[in-house]
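User: Run a structure prediction on this.
Assistant: Running it now.
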Amino acid sequence: MALPPGFNAFLIIIAVIVGLLAGGAALYVVLAFAHPDDSEAGGGAAPWVGRGVAVLAFALAAWTVLLFPLDLANAKACAPGMAAAYCTFAIPSRQLW
């Protein structure tokens, strides 16, 4: 089965891998640099909610920084000289911004 024209599979695969690596790095940073007393603060799920918010904040910051090169790579696939059909399966950069 052939891919449709304009389907940039390599760009999508790289974007998913780098996004997962950024999320994993954020999780590692939060867990590696947590204070030992944080695990006992409040008990239950309270420490994990704060850690989850911190991981989400770090990951969102990294994804926002990495969105600019993704947008540029996506724009190169949709050069003005190409037919509109080639951009059908491009990453929706406007919605992501």
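Residues 46-77 form the longest helix (32 residues).
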